[in-house]
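Standup notes
- DV: blocked on the single-chain target, sequence here:
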Amino acid sequence: MLTPTADPLGLARTIERLLGDPLFHDRLAIGGRKAYEAGYGPARAIERWRVTLRDIAGLREREALASGDRAGGTPGQMDITV
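- DV (later): unblocked, structure below
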């Protein structure tokens, strides 16, 4: 839940609503967890690391695929050591 900055009364109302409605609290927590996992869960983190390592190695997706093909490896699979 968002509250405006420098609005202590708005923040108090938000906290009061969360404390006063356990069902709302639970729904908000579940929604927050789902949003977190979609944006920052293990699968997303691994994909970000793969992109970062490719960037460090100077490769983009097409170049990585092409170099995997030329090296006789499985298309789309290559080892990057940093």
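- Follow-up: The radius of gyration is 22 Å.
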